[in-house]
Amino acid sequence: MPPTLETVTRDGHTLDVLTDTTHGMRITISRLGAELVGLERKNPAGDWVGFLFRDGDVSQPVSGWANHSTVMGYYSHRIKNERTTYRGHEIRGGTHSFLRHKIFPSPQVTLMGTSSLAYRLDPSQIALEEYPYKVAFTITYSIDVRTLKVTFQFENQEREFHTHVSFGLHPGFAAASLDAATLLMPAGTYVRHLAKDNFLTGETEEFDFPGGPMPFKKSELPDSFLLELKKVDMPLFTFTDDGTGNAVMLNYSSAPYITIWSSGQAFLCVEPCWGLPDHVEQRPFEQKLGIQEIPPRGTLTRSVSIAPGFAG
């Protein structure tokens, strides 16, 4: 049976639901922020199982984290005092930038071969105070057998200027409780970038890790762990939920940084990032740590893969 697409409205959100029955995979994308709000796979009993925090629930919670897998784009994390300068232009915006608040047009749909949904935002849909240059953005969600591939593409339409962006994905993986969540990290050399009130201090801590469960206290997760993958030969991370037996393999091989965060609720965020927050002593936008550069009339494309499954 070929994959199917259904568009539904729920709790004020327009949702695109792509189902691949053959491989037992289903994703749900909200056009608000082009956010992945549902990631499901059929278990051996034939039941659909969700892997994201509040999987498929787009109602507004009374308290706590309200998102599922926020798309961060043009800048990631935070800019100090919600404003910065970029070659003399002022940029204003809140946490994780403006993409999360944009209503994306209907996606470009592929149902033959590798099924996918591609959401595009053109420069005409971006205000000057959000981002001052002509750079289009596309995020594509593809189901490849039992793996979700997420592809970011930025297209610099300027003829004379290099442009700069940072971006990433902010998925929260569901667990029976935070205590039941485990993140297995690959061996390698990491650099932790310390952040005071979520802004970089310039202090770093380099450490060699032999591989295994993350070496961080869960009680400190609300402050975030910003990690540079300095020398990690195989950047494959595995999230497991000991309470349900759910497991997710994360191939973040193209990302220079990851962020690990939780509010203390029953989820763990493991975020691939191409760029970090502002410093306490703010730098110009184009000098933000990890900022990516796109040549005139050029494109920047990066992908990650997320494979949900079941332990054992």
What is the succession of H and E elements? Answer: EEEEEEEEEEEEEEEEEEEEEEEEE
Q: Any idea what the radius of gyration is?
A: 19 Å
How many strands, which pairing sense, and closed or not: the largest β-sheet? Answer: 9 strands, antiparallel
What is the mean predicted local confidence, pLDDT?
96
Low-confidence stretches: none
Strand order of the largest sheet: 9-10-11-12-25-21-20-15-18
- Count, helices: 0
- Secondary-structure class: mainly beta
Distance between the termini: 28 Å
Task: Give the overall shape.
Answer: globular
Number of strands: 25
**What is the percentage of strand-forming residues?**
over 45%
User: Helical percent range?
Assistant: under 10%
Characterize the structure shown.
By secondary structure, the protein is mainly beta. The chain is built from no helices and 25 strands. It has strands at residues 4-10, 13-20, 25-30, 35-42, 48-50, 69-72, 83-86, 89-92, 108-110, 115-121, 135-144, 147-156, 163-165, 167-174, 181-185, 188-196, 199-209, 212-213, 225-231, 236-241, 246-251, 257-261, 267-274, 292-294, 299-310. The strands form 5 sheets. Strands 9-10-11-12-25-21-20-15-18 form a 9-stranded antiparallel β-sheet, with no helix packed on it. It is globular and about 60 Å long. The mean pLDDT is 96.
